[in-house]
Specification:
The structure is a homodimer.
Chain A lengths: L4 H6 L3 H10 L10 H8 L3 H14 L2 E3 L5 E3 L1 H7 L6 H18 L2 E8 L2 E8 L14 E3 L4 H8 L3 H9 L13 H14 L2 E4 L6 E9 L5 E10 L5 H20 L1
Antiparallel strand pairs in A: 1-2, 3-4, 3-8, 4-5, 6-7, 7-8
Helix pairs in contact in A: 2-3, 3-4, 6-10, 7-9
Chain A binds a DNA duplex through helix 2, helix 3 and helix 4.
Chain lengths: 253, 253
DNA sequence: AGCGGACTTTCCGTCAGGCGGAAACCCTGG
DNA sequence: CCAGGGTTTCCGCCTGACGGAAAGTCCGCT
């Protein structure tokens, strides 16, 4: 016992409360009123009020002209110091640009966090297929191209854990059978490339390749997303693989 | 009395302490040991230890294989929700790419926060002049090209405040005379373009133009940084201006 | 105007829980 | 083997966080 919003409330630490305020924001709720925020964070308004005040003073939140609360610039500044974010982005940008030039499709870079992938950078073609992903977004590993790569090269324990929980289904083609997935992963490791064919949406297909850090372990994955019936993976694979390799080289320096 | 690290300690609010932990990180200190962090944050280790524990659990910090603490991915995810960050980036990316294609020089996008500019995005040419700026970095407004633009179009009060405090000098050519600066700003407003000629470093020159939001107010500034003795501002201005206008148009949609 | 509702801000008494000194623990290098 | 750095745990004191409540503010609606 002890769970349930009411009970949980009182037994939260001060930091947890502050962080809950930040967690009240997500892609669908980028701007909140104080009370909406309090509701979402599971806090009494008066408490939220004080915490928000602290965050406003610090720059972690900002109040727009419309009076709504949004995530502030200062938070972003700090966050920009995260490894696997700016540094990775900077190293990857030129090669991603090249890849975009070559394909004019969505080019994405993602890293693994726990059992999920987080998209760190993306070049969205003006005319490319619209995709669900966005920078800063989190996705389960099993479906996307980048996810397959990152899972294939993840430590044993992570793989086991990912395979043991039920796999989320997005389309009729999403692979949800662990045995099937396991063999796909072996394939990815062997070929150094992953293809997610209509496993996320029925109109898109992605081709991904691993990006390696200085010491050879896979730190990120690069992918290109194309129309499912367009140029096949066959032709894209080499380009993605070389671009990923170029990023790995840039990281080594 | 009352100031000085010791006295200040006790009189801090819980949130302030947590935020101080985050502030312990900066561009020169991206990875810290617990005690170094405590020192920088002005907190007793035991306190820092607990706060760090909370942040680790939340994902605001992460501990590397080397045992050092770094800013965590989850913080970045939240920060990515900040307006004038990802959204702006996404809107600006294509035009910035075009501008880079045209010039092959550093292309930068910045917004104003208080009396400073924060660089939000940058395309670093492989062969372009090395510059001091980096994404996530903060600079005083008076020297850089983007700063001049953002200051020129800032609200009256901001301008007054910026002009009333002494201007930081970077090179012998940095403008530090408020009267001189004031006339430069008028010029920027009139021409819709700002040139910072060797005001930050003696080898670089930047040309900047305003990016406007849907309601016409200046929300960001776009700039190109080139070798001080290279192609003059004369030739760059049109390109920068058009690219900035294209971004403004993208934002309007 | 007058009213109801939703949000924000302030106030304050209570008491949970944060705070931090100190000591134990754990390295690594001399 | 010890010295010096870091990390982690423990625990009693007491501060300052907590949140209910009420006042203040700003709508839109009739």
């Amino acid at each position: 016992m002890g769970e349930g919003s009411a009970a949980a409330r009182g037994s939260r630490t001060a930091s947890a409360r502050l962080l809950a305020v930040l967690d009240a924001f997500d892609a669908e709720h980028r701007a909140l009123t104080l009370s909406a925020l309090a509701r979402r964070a599971g806090l009494p308004v008066s408490t939220a009020h004080r915490l928000v005040g602290d965050l406003l003073a610090w720059g972690g939140l900002e109040r727009g002209d419309d009076g709504l609360l949004r995530v502030g610039l200062h938070l972003w500044e700090v966050a920009a110091l995260a490894p696997r974010t700016i540094g990775l982005r900077e190293a990857a940008a030129p090669s991603m640009g090249d890849l975009y030039e070559a394909t004019h499709e969505n080019v994405q870079l993602a890293v693994r966090d726990g059992l999920e992938v987080v998209f760190v950078e993306r070049i969205a073609g003006r005319h490319a297929v619209p995709v669900l992903t966005r920078v800063g977004l989190r996705f389960p590993m099993s479906a996307t191209g980048v996810g397959l790569v990152l899972l294939a090269f993840a430590p044993r324990e992570v793989q086991e854990e990912a395979l043991s929980s039920p796999l989320e289904r997005f389309t009729e083609r999403t692979v949800v059978d662990p045995r099937r997935l396991r063999s796909m992963l072996a394939d990815v490791r062997r070929r150094g490339i992953a293809v997610s064919d209509r496993q996320v949406t029925m109109d898109a297909l992605s081709v991904a390749a691993p990006v390696r850090g200085p010491d050879g372990d896979v730190v990120a994955a690069l992918s290109v997303v194309v129309q499912a019936d367009g140029a096949g993976p066959r032709t894209l694979a080499p380009a993605v693989r070389t671009a990923a390799a170029a990023i790995s080289r840039a990281l080594a320096r």
